[in-house]
């Protein structure tokens, strides 16, 4: 069964700290991997999309890496701010899932002023 | 602006009263799908559509119907809602590279 796991489930850091969120997946046959942000009760905002042929993507203070062979992705957030507080979701598009995204359970991030 | 639009954002209804949640995208995407999000269960796919008139079941299709008569619209229909369908619902569309999600519909069935 293809699964996506995110560790840790929750993380609290002081403002200004650099941090890493982890995502692992059970099958290397992926089409792409996407990181989303979700504020409480709100929609999913796409942060970064990494195609299977890519190693990393960057947007502002965010950097996502992909290592298909080990089944891992990381989301690096530099100089964290209270406004970064949200749940971060990793989602994988596997080849044989008919286009269905499989989501991890998310990491709830709290950045303290 | 490229977006997926869902309506309504919030809905409280009674058991058994048919309802429709609308979803529309302006990106000419072929692929559209519906997810529900529940605490502890995460996001699960309900139905998806590869193109007009092509739909298929996801992981949790029971109690739901969909239709895809036009490329831009993909409504979710609950013929006889029950309390276990209380959830946060998301519509999404995709064109090969990456998903765009709607803002969500919070449905409460009493």
What is the average per-residue confidence, as pLDDT of chain B, rounded to a whole number? 95
| Number of alpha- plus pi-helical segments of chain A | 0
Separation of termini of chain A? Answer: 41 Å
Coarse structural class of chain A = mainly beta
Biggest sheet details of chain A: 6 strands, mixed
Helix content of chain B: under 10%
Distance between the termini of chain B: 36 Å
Show the largest interface. A-B, 21 and 23 residues
- Count of individual beta strands of chain A: 11
Order of helices and strands of chain B: EEEEEEEEEEE
Could you write a compact summary of the structure shown?
The complex is a heterodimer of chains A (113) and B (110). Chain A has strands at residues 4-7, 10-14, 19-25, 30-38, 44-51, 56-59, 62-67, 72-77, 86-94, 101-103, 107-112.
Which key terms come to mind for this protein?
heterodimer, A: 113 residues, mainly beta, 6-stranded mixed β-sheet, 5-stranded antiparallel β-sheet, 0% helix, B: 110 residues, 7-stranded mixed β-sheet, 4-stranded antiparallel β-sheet, 11 strands, 53% strand, globular
What do you see in this structure?
- The complex is a heterodimer of chains A (113) and B (110).
- By secondary structure, chain A is mostly beta strands.
- Helix content of chain A is 0%, strand content 59%.
- In chain A, strands 2, 4, 5, 9, 10 and 11 form a 6-stranded mixed sheet that branches. A 5-stranded antiparallel sheet of chain A has the order 1-3-8-7-6, with no helix packed on it.
- The mean pLDDT of chain A is 94.
- Chain B contains no helices and 11 strands.
- Chain B starts with a strand and ends with a strand.
- The interface between A and B is medium-sized, with 21 and 23 residues.
Secondary structure topology:
The complex is a heterodimer of chains A (113) and B (110).
Chain A lengths: L3 E4 L2 E5 L4 E7 L4 E9 L5 E8 L4 E4 L2 E6 L4 E6 L8 E9 L6 E3 L3 E6 L1
Parallel strand pairs in A: 2-11
Antiparallel strand pairs in A: 1-3, 3-8, 4-5, 4-9, 6-7, 7-8, 9-10, 9-11
Chain B lengths: L3 E4 L2 E4 L5 E7 L5 E8 L3 E10 L2 E4 L7 E2 L9 E3 L8 E8 L4 E3 L3 E5 L1
Parallel strand pairs in B: 2-11
Antiparallel strand pairs in B: 1-3, 3-8, 4-5, 4-9, 5-6, 7-8, 9-10, 9-11
């Amino acid at each position: 069964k293809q699964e996506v796991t995110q560790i840790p489930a929750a993380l609290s850091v002081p403002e200004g700290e650099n941090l890493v969120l982890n995502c692992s997946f059970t099958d290397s046959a992926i089409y792409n991997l996407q990181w989303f942000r979700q504020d409480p009760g709100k929609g999913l905002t796409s942060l970064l999309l990494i195609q299977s042929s890519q190693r990393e993507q960057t947007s502002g203070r965010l950097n996502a890496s992909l290592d298909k062979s080990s089944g891992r992705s990381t989301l690096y957030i530099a100089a964290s701010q209270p406004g970064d507080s949200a749940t971060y979701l990793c989602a994988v598009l596997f080849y044989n899932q008919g286009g269905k995204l499989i989501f991890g359970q998310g990491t709830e991030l709290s950045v303290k002023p | 602006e490229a977006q997926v639009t869902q309506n309504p954002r919030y809905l409280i209804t009674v058991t058994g009263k048919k309802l429709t949640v609308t979803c529309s995208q302006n990106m000419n995407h072929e692929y559209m799908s519906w997810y529900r999000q529940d605490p502890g269960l995460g996001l699960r796919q309900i139905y998806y559509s590869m193109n007009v008139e092509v739909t298929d079941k996801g992981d949790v299709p029971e109690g739901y119907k969909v239709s895809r008569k036009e490329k831009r619209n993909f409504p979710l229909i609950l013929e006889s809602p029950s309390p276990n369908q209380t959830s946060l619902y998301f519509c999404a569309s995709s064109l090969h590279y990456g998903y765009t999600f709607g803002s969500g519909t919070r449905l409460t069935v009493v």
